[in-house]
Amino acid sequence: MEIAVISGKGGTGKSSITAAFATLEKNVVLVDCDVDAANQYLIFQPEKTIEKPYISGFTAKIDYDKCTSCGLCVSYCRFDAISEEKDKVIIDEVSCDGCKLCSRICPFEAIDMVQENKSRLYGGAFRNGQMVYGRLSPGEENSGKLVDMVREEAKNLQKKYGYEDIILDGPPGIGCPVISTITGVNKVVIVTEPTLSGLHDLKRTIEVVNKFKISIFVIINKSDLNEEMADKIENYCNELNISVIARIPFDKLFTEAMVECKSVIEKEPEATVSMLIKQALNLIKNN
Amino acid sequence: MNNNIKIAIASGKGGTGKTFLSTNLFRILEKQSIDVTLVDCDAEEPNDLQFLNGTLRDESRVVQFIPEIDKDKCTYCGKCFEHCNYNAIFYINSRKYIEVLEDECHGCGACSVACDDNAITEKEDELGKISVFQSSDTGKIIEARTKVGVHSPVSTIKAAIKKADSKVILLDSPPGTSCPFIQTVAQADVVILITEPTPFGLSDLKQAVETLKSMGKCCGVVVNKAGLGSNDIYDYLLEEKIPLLMSVPFDKEIALHYSKGEILSDKNADWDIKFNRLYNLILERYGNCSN
Fold first, then answer.
1. pTM, two decimal places
2. Which residues pair with A28 in a beta bridge?
């Protein structure tokens, strides 16, 4: 079974809860799909037996020996990535989308497309099974494709070791890497918090997941920071027939565990929050 | 000192308080009748308007142009398929089958250029919306909001930032350090990174700092939820000589105001003073950093 944990809003405790899930069972493949800001490896310090470069995309580069500053490429670029400054054509690497059109239409063959390969996929054993994660080099795009690659590797490891479950820690937001994280999984867990922003982001997150028709389970983390808002979120979910499987109170145990490179389950298996997370995972797996 | 300044409020990690800091800075400036615009650049999950209100002044759509293939004119030559760098055209030569995969299309226009048979026309595809709100005589909020299901927020973010023309522009940035983050901070004179003193917070902060360094951007740090976690973050800031501009303690009262969509500096005069001090500190230190 593949279970993805996402949140829409950042900082709701998604990674801490995923880490707890990953330590509730032996022999699991843990996947960190937050390739933009991977964190699970900090807790689990997995071996790095697998390392693969990830080619993210192309960037246009001008050969100024050939360029005549005719400006044709400027007029074709739809990403505002090429401009003319003082008779010199300049490419804004940040804006370049790598479509290659400029390179194709340049009459002087003065534009080359260069590939970035600084991003990496890592994988290896950790104390509860196998782990895979990606690290997108800063400023890189196409993070969804790195997520695809990371998930592919996870499936290989699952097969190789005969493990039952893959647990995916997703990125925040609702864009490309999130869509890549939830495509084809069996279950999606959304971790939210009892704030107005939490509720707003939850709505958009549910909307995205519903496009894929996957069953959703909601966890309200830090629920006691505003019980009234937690009720509101729970009511909202009930109306949509989505079950809220846990209301987890705020507990410093989460950060204390993190500082010790442990999940809450490893730090205090009998603590209230640990018990709630354990129950939640049972509900997810059996429903 | 230059009076115009663009300040991006960013963080590697999500949920560290970007919106909290942005909305508070906006309010203290607006209350002093300073010409200020807050741009909510977290287009996937925009939240500033959960905390602020205004009258809607302008609304516009952000679109890209995606191809439509006229099967009567198409000769199935496959040139558009070859030109597409995004695998957005599905083509089987032997079966004379061709289809545009709209979700994969980036709207670059390469296929239209490639087609010799005039078989490709383009239609609008909505990526997001930009809304401009007037919240006071001198305060404006611009919200970038991607359409649900759209893969990249970048075009919507860029269009929103373009609309801002106040003296002081605050950019509430998207999380992470990839494209959406870069597109936002690239427009700023100074970047204020807000983080939390946890191992996750520190790791993501380091990544954000490295990215900003490579872009040659000035940055300062605000630590939120101070008291949780460990002191490693402070050691890192000292080592890297990055100024710690403000520290916000972890406090259930602050969290409660936030949860209700309330602005701390409106509710608590001490914090009004503290955010003013922060703004002056930013001007003093970074007023001369120019984009």
1. 0.93
2. A129, A165
